[in-house]
Amino acid sequence: MMNSNLERSRERIEVYNTIVLAITTLAVAWSSYQASLWNGIQTFDLAASNKYSRLAQQKIIQAGQSMAMEEAVIIGFVNAVYDRNMARADFIMKGVKPELSKIMSDWLQTRPFENPTAPLHPMATAGYQELMQKRTGESEKLGELGQQSYDEGRKANLNGDTYSLLTVLFSMVMFLGAIATKLSRIQLRLIVTVIASVICIGVLLVLFFYMPVAHKG
Question: How far apart are CA 19 and CA 10, in angstroms?
């Protein structure tokens, strides 16, 4: 009779152990898949961050180069206006970009040599300051996109590492389940199975309620 009870207990434990191992096997596969997806997302996010950062630097360099060239043109323009050589001044305005030409024209309308409150030169006007803000604003926007992509890449890296950790914990459950099948003492087998079950349930709760899910594509 005792042998029969022991055998039934052994069979029940084996059933529980089999269920735990089956669930753990699926969880390991899912966690490994998610870790792989998050690592891929991290790669693309960091690549996007590098791209935006590079473009932001290019915009800053271009803005500086444009300002240097415009400074030389404006110096010549101001000298022409000061010398009352309007033909030369008009020629300079026709040879620059429309937005800079408008800034020069607006500066002339302030009568800078007669009006003491007028800007000293076109680069000191509100129009030119707005133009520079627009150029630097493009760089700042790209920089923000780069930082956003970098932050998303860090989050993806954290998620991938966490899924990898969960895979290790589930593997521990599988290890304990495999050991339980080799133990001859029914009490010890039960203890190992319970420990494996508790770890499995705890990790499953983290997996289901706290871990974000990555989607392919």
Answer: 14
CA distances from residue 177 to 32, 40, 65, 192, 205 in whole angstroms, order as listed: 20, 32, 68, 7, 19
CA distances from 2 to 13, 91, 150 (A): 16, 112, 65
Amino acid 131 reads L
Backbone φ, ψ for residue 206 (5° rounding): -65, -45
> Where in the sequence is the domain holding 29, given as residue range(s)?
2-209
The values of phi and psi at residue 169, to 5°, are -65, -40
Tell me, yes or no, whether 216 lies in a domain: no
| Whether the predicted pLDDT of 143 surpasses 60 | yes
Question: What predicted TM-score, i.e. pTM, was given to this entire model?
Answer: 0.75
DSSP per-residue codes, 30-62:
HHHHHHHHHHHHHHHHHHHHHHHHHHHHHHHHH
Residue-level pLDDT at 181: 81
Question: Is residue 66 within 8 Å of 181, Cβ to Cβ?
Answer: no
Per-residue pLDDT reduced to its tens digit, 106-123: 888 888 888 888 888 888
Instruction: Flag whether 215 is in a domain.
Output: no
pLDDT of 170 > 70? The answer is: yes
Q: Mention every residue, 6+ apart, whose C-beta is less than 8 A from residue 106.
A: 125, 127
As to burial, measured by CB atoms within 10 angstroms (0-12 exposed, 13-18 middle, 19+ buried), residue 126 is exposed
